[in-house]
Amino acid sequence: MPARFLLAADVPYDTVKSLRSNTIAAHFGIEHDGKAHDALGDAMSVGLVLQHLLRDGRLPPSAFA
User: Which residue segment(s) compose the domain that 21 sits in?
Assistant: First the structure.
């Protein structure tokens, strides 16, 4: 996930640097049963986080422009 999305959601830079696609969902408290280091599982984790941040209003849709 490009860091710009997390930064746009006001996630601290030091936190952004430490996150990985296979652990990002857990960081945001999202349950996800995908396998770590599996392309589909990692992509689902990232997608779920983006959806979560959008729904919570933390990530503005304009961040995708």
Answer: 3-64
